[in-house]
Write a structure and sequence with these properties.
Elements (H helix, E strand, L loop, with lengths): L4 E2 L20 H13 L4 E3 L9 E5 L11 H11 L2 E23 L2 E19 L5 E7 H14 L10 H16 L8 E2 L5
Parallel strand pairs: 1-7
Antiparallel strand pairs: 2-3, 3-4, 4-5, 5-6
Length: 195
Amino acid sequence: MVLPIYAYGSPVLREECEEIEEGADISKLLEDMFETMYASQGVGLAAPQVGKALRLFIVDASPFAEDEPKDEEEAKNFEILKNFKRVFINPIIEDEEGKEWAFSEGCLSIPNIREDVTRKSVITISYFDENWEYKEEKLGGIAARIIQHEYDHIEGVLFTDYLNPLKKRLLKRKLEDIAKGKVKIGYRMNFPLKK
């Protein structure tokens, strides 16, 4: 079932999410989240974005692997992204390292706004997968970026929090309009201030 995406201004997007009890059956929620993410053409979706304050997010980075790689390094990253579909239950980013790099990020909860965000290039993350198997991975590039963005969601952080004060002021009206539902989008949303 396609769920509505909670828009900017929704209190659940600012909550530090609760851990999920180990072994809990969340298969229906995962199925709904993947369906919702694909219906809204996203590459990641966190539980708070569908109104659940749980430490859970999903990713499918395959759309990033559709462009032609320019060099050998990029080809290696694209090969990883082609099959990079994961479920992250109760994740912990253990380490962030490497060179900081800027990339234009967007968010399903903040439609029609994209801004450069600077993040570390490599992460180490531990988590449980959909079968409650414990995993630890070291990832870089776009895969790391998507995970950092989704991880922020379960910490109550949005990508707009990284912007400088001037950029935030310039976006204030657009963000208020999103919260009120004054935005054109092609997927279901739940707006906190819509009358």
